[in-house]
Amino acid sequence: MTAADEPNRADLGKDPARVSGMFDQVAAAYDRTNTLLSLGNDRLWRIAMTRAVAPQPGERVLDLAAGTGASSVALARSGAEVVAADFSPGMIAEGARRHGGIPNLSFVEADAMALPFDDSSFDAVTISFGLRNVAEPKVALAELLRVTKPGGRLVICEFSQPQNPVFAALYRFYNDRVLPTVAGWVSSNADAYDYLNESIKAWPAQRALAAWVREAGWTDVAYRDLTFGIVALHRAVKA
Predict the structure, then answer these.
(1) In order along the chain (239 residues), what is the average pLDDT of each group of 10 residues?
(2) Which residues take part in binding S-adenosyl-L-methionine (predicted)?
(3) Deepest in the core among 25, 130, 135, 192, taking most CB within 10 A?
């Protein structure tokens, strides 16, 4: 095994190079692993995100932290022009390999804290399960605001904190005991899913993230829980 092949594990310092390298290593099996670990709920969350974005033909939509483009493909089915952006070259390459033939879908390597797009470029912007991997998420929220047209909309789909104490305890048990075992079976880099667990525990609850969105300058901020609060879907509008 060469140094490049050794498992790359990010930590809560969220060094961009380490996080990007970690996702490069899991790109090929990423979607399959997510479906297994989420017990198939990732597909339901993707449907909820797509409905919240409500892309229309002729619109331009940014799907940030798009990974291999599963969420981007769902958005592109509307006829909107979708830009799938991610800071992992491995993810972008895998997405382009799988979905490069879709005419209204393009793949771009991009840093969420310094987006390579002009001001007011998109009718809608969305980020699914990626904001908590950004070293400075508040900077990313401000960047998303910058590239959105006035009146444009933001949708964030992200892991959150279940509010029911019984369900929260079951969720912690699953993340602490079951998830690492399953990840060890199916992932090429099981350590990456240890980081996943840590990042979920450290991530703020729904109200705190909603406050961050408001602080970044977004208006009409609202959220709703999915799957008993394992995930929250946040929505906002650029004034």
Answers:
(1) 47 70 69 80 95 97 95 96 95 93 96 98 97 96 98 97 93 84 66 77 94 98 97 98
(2) 68, 86, 111-112, 128
(3) 130
Domain range summary for the chain, segments of one domain joined by +: 16-237
> Which CATH code for domain 16-237?
3.40.50.150
Binding-site members for S-adenosyl-L-methionine are 68, 86, 111-112, 128
Q: Which residue ranges are tagged as binding site?
A: 68, 86, 111-112, 128
